[in-house]
Design goal:
This protein is mainly α. It is about 80% helix and about 0% strand. The model has no long low-confidence stretch (mean pLDDT about 85).
């Protein structure tokens, strides 16, 4: 007797109202959640979409974070006593409002506003979710990068300028490489948070891992195994990324010793 026949037999007993032993009940629910109708493929497909949304949001967040942090750092590092750039002041004020609003409001509220109000006519919920997550992540990435840049000795930037480098070249070749090593752990944590926050996209109809899980337990009427499966997938993804992050940090430390 193969697993499918065993499942059909024990499920029939369960439907008939017979109380099954623990191992039989466990097998029926496990089979129902992962094996029946090749449902495990839905988990893999949902995980792939989760990674895609995370990658899109991460790209948006990094670009926004770098731009905002550079503007705010350039504004804060203007030499005292000299006339400040008014255009830079206006852009810095806009960036401060952006960071304050995004960090001061819940992610769920931002997703609902973007999905149900601003992009209410769109049916590409995954793209709307990725955009919202990217905008949210950009505010946190901006503060992480700005903190790393401001923590460096100002003499580093002044030395670069004294050598004839422009502000952009000074940041690119001197300041940013040193700051990156300091902010890497915080950026890694932000990516992990972003990966887990993709589960919120299901609330506006975005098709990712949790959306697939909701569809499965909506058909099987059994929530524990699908949700535990999703939790295990998230855990494995986070562990893989944490391992990659640790490997990168060790390599950077080795380059410092050389």
């Amino acid at each position: 007797m193969d697993l499918a026949q065993l499942y059909d037999q024990w499920k029939a007993l369960m439907v008939a109202g017979e109380e099954l032993p623990f191992y039989q009940n466990f097998f029926v629910k496990f089979y129902q959640a992962f094996i029946e109708n090749d449902r495990w493929l839905q988990y893999l497909e949902g995980a792939g979409r989760t990674l895609l949304i995370t990658a899109m949001a991460l790209a948006i967040g990094i670009v926004l974070g770098i731009l905002v942090s550079l503007v705010r750092t350039a504004h804060d590092q203007q030499r005292p006593g000299r006339r400040k750039n008014p255009i830079l002041g206006v852009i810095n004020a806009v960036c401060k409002v952006y960071v304050t609003v995004i960090r001061g409001t819940p992610m769920m509220v931002q997703l609902l506003i973007m999905g149900l109000v601003i992009f209410s006519s769109s049916r590409n919920y995954a793209a709307v979710g990725a955009l919202t997550l990217g905008i949210n992540s950009g505010a946190y990435v901006a503060e992480i990068i700005r903190g790393g840049l401001m923590s460096l000795d100002p003499g580093q930037a002044e030395a670069g300028r004294s050598l004839g480098l422009t502000y952009v070249d000074t940041m690119r070749f001197i300041v940013v490489p040193q700051a990156f090593k300091a902010i890497l752990p915080a950026l890694g944590n932000e990516f992990i948070i972003l990966l887990k926050d993709t589960s919120l996209v299901a609330m506006i109809g975005g098709k990712e891992l949790l959306y697939a899980v909701q569809g499965i337990y909506g058909r099987t009427w059994e929530q524990m195994f699908p949700l535990m499966g999703a939790a295990c997938i998230y855990l494995v993804l986070v562990m893989i990324f944490s391992w990659l992050q640790g490997k990168l940090e060790r390599r950077l430390r080795q380059s410092d010793r050389r």
